[in-house]
Task: structure prediction
Amino acid sequence: MKGERSVITRINPDTLHTSPAFSQVITVSSGARLVFVGGQNATDANGQIVGNDIATQSAQAFRNVLAALEAAGATMDDVIRLAIYIVQGHSIQEGFEAVMQIPEARLGPPTVTAFYVAGLARPDALVEIEALAAVPE
Result:
């Protein structure tokens, strides 16, 4: 079904490094509805931060992204971009490895950009993930 409804083309030129975790280039054809998921941190449904380490918080933030996508009628197969903001002093690699343990994280894959930041709006949050998806109309 993915191929029948896809408006997304993932491109990994031979001249660039390839990874199963991300795509180098993505194009979106006309007929797509864009879904913007605002930055999700590691809060649970009660607004409490889950975990105090980067791995636990990254996994919870990613599960929150998945829930937001589902509410908008999208899946990770529709995601074209993830932006990951990690508080300085914490390991991007540890957070990424925790997220990759979630089966849905291996779908797609989207383009990914990670940033180190001095802090986030919520002081106890170590990571925030936002997503952009393109869903066929």
